[in-house]
TrEMBL record:
It comes from the Eukaryota. The lineage of its organism: Eukaryota, Metazoa, Chordata, Craniata, Vertebrata. The keyword Cytoplasm applies. GO terms for biological process: phosphatidylinositol dephosphorylation. It comes from Pomatorhinus ruficollis (streak-breasted scimitar babbler). One of its GO terms (cellular component) is sarcoplasmic reticulum. It is found in: Cytoplasm, Myofibril, Sarcomere; Sarcoplasmic reticulum. This is Myotubularin-related protein 12. Its main location: cytoplasm.
């Protein structure tokens, strides 16, 4: 027994076992082979690879095989061979441990605990491999116990096939199209806008056929390879005008409002021209403007998006900063960034860009709806921000675009056939980062704001938007892998793997049965979709769910906490930099919006919502939120146990089922007409077993409470009572928000 003044001796035990060996799950004994799709080839593999679990800072994980094919990178363990405990929302093409080559964002190697970006030829091979994905997953692999030759092959193979420039026809899209059987069900209701009839039907649907016409001038792509085969122009525009400048300077119809006002778009002429050419082009444009400003056409308002919205470079920079907040390696990284969450979120400028885009869409809607004015969106190519604004305006003003088939038809019309450069903007070929910009993802973020503000107005769910964003990186669909209709059509012909000549049979992403079985597809459909307008104003108030991280910047100062903590300094910083400026309506603009626009915005929000009429997004400070499901779904620390939107949906569905049960008893015939949708979201019983990450993750993966060294506390907070503690670690569990 020690004396009163004696200190306990320091532990003399030293462990020579690595953390990986402490939490070992025995290497698999049986051979596990990857499930290959038609046309998929195994390129390289490595055995005895240790995959870390992402959700905590420990070194828990499992051994398995890491493989690389011409389609994906895949980790195979003994669970890969069985179908037990499969998630109910399972993608049939891309598994939980699969990463398509196009989904790889960056690859880092760890050398002596230092991370280094891996590109090109490697002289030295890492002991750990970290893969950051564009869908924000992070994979950590330990190669310490893998044979040296296998390490060289797998690391070189992964870096080469996912990071180096490639030719278009080297994409897996072509291998799959030539080898896969053409057995789609063909029941897709999406309008593809590949025929003249599709455009005429759309003109008739929107009553735009009185003043506008579908033209065949570009058949054979004789006008321009950037334009679609068929498009719509004002009746007064002649074929000669279209041919004169290869389609530039021609107003192209997007959509007609119920009052006859139309939304148009136009690509500009090249900026560097000699004086005589510029004068000719100016005279040509003046003639076009005068022609479409006379009766029967409404007044025309020009809107140059390049001067009124952020540049593509600004959008790319903002998103690059924003996504770094969610590419989390472990719990320690999560809580370290959580300390500065508000300032980090604001500094990315991503939410501000979303706000500005939504505000621009409101401006356009006001011109069409209130002023009865045609709006002509102008952009250099009319295939980027024009697509965003025209799509948003239609989602806000046309209830058909808020149905699933209508929204898919809208994407086909404005983006796929409209000529958005998916190949370049997503950098699928890794040819030029200068062309990369998340323009389509920006649209989905804006639409999500509307979906979460007005859930009953949409036939689809946020899960639908999330899997649609994931589908950007699945190269078995042609939808998001070409820059134009011309590029797709000219690459359709080729030799199949079965030595038979013939065109490739490209799949469309709108055939959801390729990725999901019927039960999983049910998560894409909104069971609370309003079939009729609901004028009750109380319906508009959507619940706000508390989260470990607030998902929007606050509008007014929060009530100060009675307990001082390490968030104090951060909160003070936030108050000075944000709250002190008093965020009002239309937060982004230094200049106040025109009175007519503000009156339009305020007037609409003072009335009950017609879910099948005009929808205007709320763009006040805290109303623009982070798309939690997409950005936080892989971070267990961010989950709300038994909470989130899924818990609310489960309770509402229970009530709906009770109502329908009573209805069945009252009128059996009528019950057949109203039943069905309630059961469209399976297994929402016992919502306490679910979390806010559902359906992408269940509650089975528990998050380990963080423990930060005292030295970290010293950096974060100058609290004497914490600094003086003798404990080596301080548990944060009692101070979490």
């Amino acid at each position: 027994m020690l004396g009163g003044g004696a200190r306990a001796a320091k532990p003399s035990f030293v462990s020579y076992i690595s953390p990986e060996e402490i939490h070992i799950k025995e290497p698999i004994e049986k051979e596990v082979n990857p499930r290959l799709l038609p046309g998929e080839l195994l390129l390289c593999e490595a055995s005895t690879v240790y995959k870390y679990m992402q959700e905590d800072g420990s070194n828990r994980g499992t051994y398995g095989k890491l493989v690389c094919t011409n389609f994906k990178i895949s980790f195979l363990d003994d669970d890969s061979a069985s179908d037990d405990n499969e998630p109910q929302f399972k993608n049939k093409i891309v598994g939980e441990n699969d990463i398509t080559l196009q989904c790889v964002d960056q690859i880092y190697g760890v050398y002596d605990e230092k991370k280094k970006l891996l590109t090109g030829q490697l002289r030295k091979y890492p002991e750990k491999l970290i893969i950051y994905c564009k869908d924000l997953r992070v994979f950590n692999f330990c190669l310490r116990y893998t044979k040296e030759e296998e390490v060289k092959r797998i690391v070189s193979g992964i870096v080469h096939h996912s990071q180096t420039p490639k030719l278009l026809k080297r994409l897996f899209l072509f291998s799959y199209a030539s080898a896969a059987p053409n057995n789609t069900d063909g029941r897709n209701q999406t309008v593809m806008f590949e025929t003249l009839e599709d455009w005429r039907d759309e003109l008739e649907r929107t009553k735009g056929n009185v003043k506008y016409k579908a033209v065949t001038t570009n058949e054979g792509y004789r006008v321009s390879e950037k334009l679609p085969l068929y498009f719509v122009v004002p009746l007064c525009i002649s074929e000669e005008s279209i041919l004169k400048y290869e389609g530039r300077g021609i107003p192209i119809w997007c959509w007609s409002c119920h009052n006859g006002a139309a939304l148009l778009k136009m690509s500009t002429f090249p900026k560097e021209q000699d004086d005589s050419t510029s004068q000719m082009q100016k005279a040509f444009l003046d003639g076009i403007y005068k022609t479409i400003s006379k009766p029967p056409y409404e007044l025309l308002k020009l809107d140059d998006l390049s001067s009124s919205l952020p540049s593509l470079q600004d959008i790319q920079t903002a998103y690059t900063r924003f996504k770094q907040l969610f590419l989390i390696d472990n719990s320690t990284d999560f809580w370290a960034t959580d300390v500065k969450w508000f300032s980090l979120l604001e500094s990315t400028n991503w939410l501000e860009i979303i706000r500005r885009v939504l505000k621009k869409a409101i401006e356009v809607a006001e011109c069409l709806e209130i002023q009865h004015t045609n709006v002509l969106l102008i952009e250099e190519s009319a295939t980027d921000l024009c697509c965003v604004i025209s799509s948003l305006v239609q989602v806000m003003m046309d209830s058909y675009s808020r149905t699933k088939s209508g929204f898919q038809s809208l994407i086909q019309k404005e983006w796929v056939i409209g000529g958005h450069g998916f190949l370049d903007r997503c950098n699928h070929l890794h040819k030029s980062e200068k062309e990369e910009a998340p323009v389509f993802l920006l649209l989905l973020n804006c639409v999500w704001q509307l979906v979460q503000q007005y859930p009953p107005a949409f036939e689809f769910t946020e899960t639908y938007l999330t899997v649609l964003s994931d589908s950007l990186y699945v190269p078995i669909f042609s939808t998001f892998f070409f820059n134009s209709q011309h590029q797709r059509d000219t690459n359709k012909s080729g030799e199949s793997l079965k030595t038979q000549s013939g065109p490739f049979r490209f799949l469309t992403v709108w055939d959801w049965a390729v990725q999901f079985d019927p039960k999983a597809q049910a998560f894409l459909n909104n069971p609370l979709y309003a079939e009729k307008p609901k004028p009750d104003k109380s319906q508009r108030k959507t619940a706000r769910f508390k989260h470990q991280r607030q998902l929007s910047l606050p509008l007014t100062q929060a009530k100060p906490s009675t307990k001082r903590g390490f968030f104090r300094e951060e909160t003070d910083h936030l108050i000075k930099n944000i709250l002190g400026k008093r965020i009002g309506k239309f937060i982004n603009s230094s200049d106040e919006p025109p009175n007519s626009l503000k009156e339009f915005y305020d007037s609409w929000h003072s009335k009950p919502v017609d879910y099948h009429g005009l929808l205007l997004p709320r763009i006040d400070g805290p109303e623009i939120k982070v798309w939690a499901q997409r950005y936080l779904r892989w971070i267990p620390e961010a989950q709300l146990h038994g909470g989130g939107t899924i818990a609310t949906a489960a309770k509402i569905l229970d009530l709906m089922e009770e109502v329908q049960t009573l209805q069945v008893k009252m009128d059996e015939e009528h019950s057949q007409a109203v039943s069905g949708d309630v059961h469209s979201v399976p297994l929402l019983r016992n919502s306490a077993r679910l979390s806010s990450l559902f359906p992408f993750a269940l509650l089975q993966r528990q998050s380990v409470k963080p423990a930060l060294p005292t030295s970290t506390w010293k950096d974060l907070e100058d609290e004497d009572d914490l600094v003086k503690r003798d404990d080596e670690f301080v548990d944060l569990s009692g101070d979490m928000l």
